[in-house]
Amino acid sequence: MMILNPTVEAALAQDEKRGLLMCHIEWPSGEVYTHSRVGEKRWDNRTWIGVGEFANIGTVESGVKTGRLSLQLRVNDEALLNEAIQDDAVGSAVRLYLGVMNEKRRITAVQLIHYGFVAATPVSYEPVPVISIEVAGHRERRNRPRENLRFSANAWRHRHPGDSYCDDVEALSKGPLNGYSGSNAVGRGGRLNGGGGREQIP
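Below the sequence we write its predicted C-alpha cells.
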C-alpha cells in the first residue's frame, strides 16, 4: 500500500475530484509534460498540457512482463503520430505523479507514484489512432537488458551532447584502432602481468 504525502492525502480526503495524474516523459525529441485534466497547468516552473479524455493509464500487466504500465493517447495529429513512429524512445525515463489542486484549480502538491522506462511504443490504427507507451520497471529493465537497454548514435548524442561514443564504436568496428582518430580521447591501455601489476602496452 502506498503511503501518501500528508498534503496530498488531506486534499483527496476533502474532495477526491481535486486529484489529477501527471506524466513526464523524457522523449528523444523533447521533454513531454502532460496531466489527466484539460487545459494548461503550471508546476515546477513548467507547463503541463492536459490530455483529458484522450488519454488513459492501463493496469499493471501480469505474466512475463510483470510490472509494465501502459499509457495510451488517442491522436488525430499526423505529425505527432509520425514522431511516435520514427523516434526511438526505448530506455527513456517516465515519471508518473499524483497531484492535487486547490479551489482555484491550481496544483498545490505532487507525489511521485511510478518511475520506469519506455519499453515499447506500439501504434494501433483504429478510426482514431492510438499511441501506446509501455513502461517497464527497474526489475524488468535489469532482467531483460537486450530489450530495454539500447542506444542509437542519435539517442546517445541527445543524452550526451558532444560525446561521440556510439559513432566511435561504429567506426572502430570497421578498421584497426591505430587507423582511427575519433573525437573522443582514447587512452593508452594496459594489461595485468603475472605479478598483479599493470604492464603498459606499447
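The helical segments are 6-14, 78-86, 138-143, 145-148, 153-159, 165-172.
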